[in-house]
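This is your field. Please look over both lines of this record.
***
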Amino acid sequence: MTPPARTGPRTLAQPPAPGVPARGASAAAWRTRSVARVAELARFGSVGAVAYVVDVGLFNLLRFGPGDLLEAKPLTAKALSVAVATVVAWLGNRYWTFAHRRTGARGRELLGFALVNLGGLAVGLACLGFSHYVLGLRSPLADNISANVVGLVLGTAFRYVCYQRLVFTGADDRSAAGR
């Protein structure tokens, strides 16, 4: 005897064929992963915003603040401001953004974080150096746009991917905890 012919599309009440995931299950898993990624990006952006304020504020204080400490040394001012902002970002990313992916090797993570930030610093310094020394754009606005806008945009994507793939490589403990 042959099974009855189906006349319409399969409904959710009908089980899928063996070995095929249920349609709702894969969509739910995708939504869960998407929500987790958006939340992680929001935390990353928040930490980055705080570090950015520290970086820009300190850079401008060193270049144009009282005593003109590093008025004639924009690259040194930028290197120092990035170093301080890196410590802020390290703490925020380790203990908040990627807390679920930390490893027990804190020293390895810190070294990787520092190396990734050196790459990001190189991007920012290249933008500032090109603008300041090659193009001759030396105003406070030009220095801020080249170092704190262009360099930031180019370096942020680089940092996020590197943090995720090279620095915070521990097992995602959210899946074990059912989060």
User: Anything to note?
Assistant: DSSP finds five helices and no strands in the chain. The mean pLDDT is 82.
